[in-house]
Amino acid sequence: MFTALYFGVVGAVLALLMRVQLSVPNNDFLEAAYYNQAVTMHGLIMIFWFLSPLGVALFNYLVPLQIGAKDLAFPRLNALTYWLFLAGGLMAVLSFFVPGGAAAAGWTSYEPLAGPVYSPGPGPTMTYLGLMLMAASVTVGSVNFIATILWLRRPGMRLSDMPMFSWFALFTVVAMLFAFPSIIAAFLLVLTDRLIGTVLYAPPSILNVPGIDPSLLWDDLFWFFGHPEVYIVLLPAFGVIADITPAFTGRPLDGRNWILISVAAIVLPISFGVWMHHMFLTGIPNVLLEVFDVSTEIVSIPFGIIVIMFILSMVHGRIQFKTPLLFIVGALVLFIIGGIMGVFLSSPVLDRVYNGSYFVVSHFHYVMVGATIFGLFAGIYYWLPKMTGRMYNESLGKVHFIISFIGFNVLYAPMMLLSDMPRRIFTYQNIGDWAQLNGIATVGAFIFAGAQIIVAYNLLHTWFRGPPSGPNPWGSQSPEWSTPATGSVPVAPVETEPAGGWIGQLPGPQSASVSGPSPVSHAMSAVSHEVHLSSRPLTLSAGVMLFLTGAALYPGGAIQLSVLTIPPGVFPLALMVLGVGVFAASIVGWAWDDIRNKFVGPAGDPGGDRWPYDEVPKMKLGMWVFLSSEIVLFGTLLGAYIFIREAALEWPSPASVHDIPLATANTLILLTSGFTMAMAVYAIRKGDQRGLLGWLVATFVLGSTFIGVKISEWLGLFSGAAPFLPSSSNPVTALAASIYYVVVGLHGAHVVAGLVVLVYLMKKTARGGFTKDDHMSIENFALYWAFVEIVWCFVFPLFYLL
Amino acid sequence: MGRFGASFLMYSGVLAATPPTVATWTRVYDVYLTLGVGTAVVVISALLYAVVRYRSRGQKEPVQGAKQHGWKAVLAIVLVMGVILAIAGSQTFAGFTNIEIPNSPGTVTVSVTGFRWGWNFTYPDGQYVIGDLTVPVNTIVILNITSSDVYHTFGIAMLDVKEDAIPGKVNQLWFNMTEMGNYTDAIRCYQLCGVGHAFMIANLTVVSQSQWNATFGAQKG
Ligand code: HEM
Ligand SMILES: [Cu+2]
Ligand SMILES: [Cu+2]
Questions:
Q1: What letter does residue A479 receive in the DSSP assignment?
Q2: What's the CA angle centered on B175, arms B174 and B178, to 5 degrees?
Q3: CA A466 → CA A100, A176, A488, B65, distances in Å?
Q4: What is the pLDDT of residue A759?
Q5: Which of the four, A86, A121, A491, A603, has the lowest number of CB atoms within 10 Å?
Q6: Are residues A113 and B6, on separate chains, in Cβ contact within 8 Å?
């Protein structure tokens, strides 16, 4: 949570810089290049490293408390989530200082502007790599939360008994699980373009393939993710509102189930069916304009139900005007305004004026800053006594609310009126009332920012000096209050190593000063992490980060160290090698710890309430959830491929490039390995350890053969007669090669990862590590392996036969 | 109803007759504005009223037997919102005339190519001008918009028209200007396209039909 707040401050400073620049016409406080970086990184940091993580930090703290779990289902994965997130954030922030600067193509990263031609240099590459780490972190995190919520509830707690906040957490992570793979896919293509020289988003000026439209490919991929993402940002705040309103109204929520049904409707079908409302001006056919106009209107209906139910939940209550309640009311008011602006935007006709203008900026700040931040503030004030055992200062809280609310509106209401001013321009001429409106907005920005100093003071003061709050200051019925307030019994910090998680004792320069050795900071990690202290997730993330940074910088220029000149390429290469080393060491170490059974969890699994997954063990559930995100990932990539194939007027015939009989034989080899893997599972189910080992070895041999043939085929394609290189002189082959290498390469990487795991499994089997009753890893691996094969069953016909 | 939220529209104040695209846009907008402001006022007042009316007068205990609304309330919300949205949506559908390219005789077509950082206008007779779009008055003008490098968005705020300029793709928009004159900086780029984005501006010049034909219109119609 500190880390999220820290990134929040970075993002806010960027925003203030921009507001200063725009306060008067023709200003030259920030140059265009820096302004563009600021506007881009402000968006990325605020959304990915501040708002979402702040919500997830609350999940991390509260969900286990609310459902009565000791911790998340996979604590080490939770640590991994945190460290990947931090590593990604560091890369993004550091990219400012790298040649090329931070990404400057807007958070939407429209192509081809974000590609290597128009945003050259390692800086943007590094930003986007950081984003990938963040996305990986989100995927790992969502698997963990879903498994936790479905599997670790306290005995007797049915899903329907769960507190609202946990419900919203579940919906949020489900949305994350399905949305983030598509952005991983979208940015994977950006990064291969930038790093390896594929031409997936190359503009026609570079690669002219008739019919191909890289900008639209990007738009579709990005917004298919981007729209659900905005709800991902919002839902934690609504979860707070739904959960804590009753504490201040003295009555239960009205229409609890209807609220849940509405959220379910938003998250699963509808939010994935409105993305083209961001593309109304791209020249899509009119029927699509109509369809997406209507679907966007439809999505506002469940939001309407939720808001009205929140309002009805106030009726007949006895409302206490405490700070959290004020923030709730503020969030609702701002959401109503912002949501109605959204309905204006849902009209393709009206959007002819709004698109790309400050009206859109105003809209999404009303919903993201207004509704989300205000809602999260309500939660922070409300649970502060839980986290610290101390009560915040009520008057300061109220002052904070009033100034924030006023500042917010002074900041964003003028932007509503600036519907003719393009967004993301770094300066403007003195036209109409632009100068006045921008001036007012900048004043508002400083009022709003100033108000946040109050809350910073209030939080710190509460933390160290606040009066004791007692275990349940709000008289709430919710289960998290039934345990003693965590801070009331000061405990000396015993953790020598960070346990990870987005809440808790987070090391690192920025939080050391805040948390330090205060008793409270330990107490905040109320869920116990002792069983699994491990530095592996940290080193693993650090290894990945080093490697990727090296890759982004490569080859770079020469470096002068007084007398010594390091030739280009050496330093990045060294970083990469070091990164691979650290990464490999952590993986091997992790596996080794496991083989030696270093992590003995609490004996047996506590019998929790697991409906609807009583029969499925926790690991397997996690694996299924993970695989479903993998399905979205490959689905998106194959979708991109089909999109390109459909649009291209000509395409090289597979038989002219690939050796089809060989590839068919290879496919059979892979399928056979699926059979041997299944045999391995049967063997161990019968308790036959030698049989297991034999079948595993067979699988390994077959898998290696498959990948070996694959590699030789690749080498052939790079050097052979048919020029199937991304740099090929023929544009269509270049494009075909690019998508082929990315998709087949990603599949190959999955096979290789599988082989690595196989090595570990064989090793553990050889040591007698699996028995009839304890062979979960084998079952899970079999699932994974089956998935890899199924993907190939799609890839093979699509790339080799059609 | 007045149009607030359009500071640059000072130009439309000086136009004797409202251009058709502006008339349509404003008609749609007025409906949205009425419904939107109406809804916002009703809902926000209800919220504030509820909060104030049911404020605690010292009670601390939970209230017993507060009413729970069920499917009837939900149905009512869906119906009311459905009606509001249907009215709004039908206005939008009626306003699609702004988007559909008219297929009538006597139109003129100009090609627009966005580049970093400016606009290139190519006229029917083949000549091209950078930074200034000249069109005949009281004529339907169709623009074929594309880009030679990155994604741009071509917009004329005073006419309520805008369309993306995408490399490798041609998008169309139309308008009909009702008054002659020089409209400085009327055309802007609305999509971040690099460091020159803020200066990707062009003028709109409206001349008489005969003058336009003499200068550019080798093949009118
Ligand atoms: C009733 C609900 C909503 C409707 C009907 C709606 C509609 C829209 C539409 C049509 C756009 C595209 C405008 C354009 O680019 O021309 C848009 C943009 C946006 N909306 Fe919403 N919206 C709603 C709620 C939300 C919420 C709850 C959030 C986030 C918490 C949100 C965040 C955004 C963002 C970030 C953008 C701008 C993306 C960009 O171009 O950078 N919206 N909205
Ligand atoms: Cu959207
Ligand atoms: Cu631009």
A1: G
A2: 160
A3: 47, 36, 11, 36
A4: 81
A5: A603
A6: no
Does any CB of chain A come closer than 8 Å to the CB of residue B46? yes
Q: Whose CA is nearest to atom 22 of ligand 1?
A: A342
**Tokens, residue A19:** 């507001």
CA–CA–CA angle B204, B207, B210 (5° rounding): 145
Tell me which residue of A182, A98, A170 sits closest to A132, measured CA to CA: A182
Q: What distance lies between CA A714 and its chain's CA centroid?
A: 32
Give A148-158 pLDDT, tens digit per residue. Answer: 888 777 776 77
CB contacts, 8 Å: B22 with chain A: none
User: Does residue B204 sit at the A interface (CB-CB below 8 Å)?
Assistant: no
pLDDT tens digits, residue range B186-209?
899 999 988 888 889 999 999 998
In degrees rounded to 5, what are phi and psi of residue B19? -60, 145
Chains A and B form CB pairs within 8 A to the count of: 279
Residue A595 to residues A352, A533, A534, A630, B131, Cα–Cα distance (Å): 62, 17, 15, 27, 70
Best interface-test mutation with A: which of B78, B150, B172 has the largest number of A CBs within 10 A?
B150
**3-state helix/strand/coil string of B196-213:** CHHHCEEEEEEECHHHHH
Question: Inter-chain contact B47–A118, Cβ cutoff 8 Å?
Answer: no
Q: Look-up: residue for tokens 């023929």? A: A730
The rounded Å distance from CA A509 to ligand 3 centre is 39
Nearest neighbour of A251 by CB, restricted to B66, B170, B197: B66
Best of B57, B113, B166 to mutate (most A CBs within 10 Å, chain A): B166
Cα radius of gyration rounded to whole Å, chain B:
24
Give the pLDDT confidence score for residue B60 in this predicted structure.
74
Cβ contact B202:B119 at 8 Å? yes
Short-list A14, A10, A27, A12, CA closest to A426: A27
Distance of alpha carbon A123 from alpha carbon B84, whole angstroms: 48
Instruction: Give the amino acid at B22.
Output: V
Q: Average the pLDDT over A653-663 and give the result.
A: 74
Assign domain A537-599+630-801 one CATH number from 3.90.1860.10, 3.40.50.1970, 1.20.120.80, 3.40.50.2000. Answer: 1.20.120.80
3-state SS track over A493-551: CCCCCCCCCCCCCCCCHHHHHHHCCCHHHHHHCCCCCHHHCCCHHHHHHHHHHHHHHHH
Closest ligand to Cα A44 = 1
Q: What is the ipTM of this complex?
A: 0.92
Q: Are strands B181-189 and B152-156 parallel, antiparallel or unpaired?
A: antiparallel
Q: Tell me: the pLDDT tens digits for A646-657?
A: 777 777 777 667
- For chain A, where do the domains classified as CATH 1.20.120.80 start and end? 537-599+630-801
A591: helix, strand or coil: helix
- Which of A309, A315, A325, A316 shows the shortest CA–CA distance to A245? A325
Most confident of A92-101, B11-20, B120-129: B120-129
Taking residues A31-48, report their average pLDDT: 80
* pLDDT computed for residue A661 by the predictor: 79
- A206/B contact by beta carbon, under 8 A: no
Q: How far apart are CA A649 and CA A629, in angstroms?
A: 32
| Confidence (pTM) | 0.86
At A744-768, the pLDDT tens digits run 888 888 888 888 888 888 877 777 7
- Please indicate whether, in this complex, the C-beta atoms of B153 and A290 are within 8 angstroms of each other: no
For ligand 1, atom 35, the nearest C-alpha belongs to A364
3-state DSSP percent of chain B in helix, strand and coil, to 5: 40, 30, 35
What is the C-alpha separation between A441 and A19, in angstroms, rounded? 8
Residue of B nearest to A204 (CA): B168
Question: Which one-letter amino acid corresponds to residue A413?
Answer: A
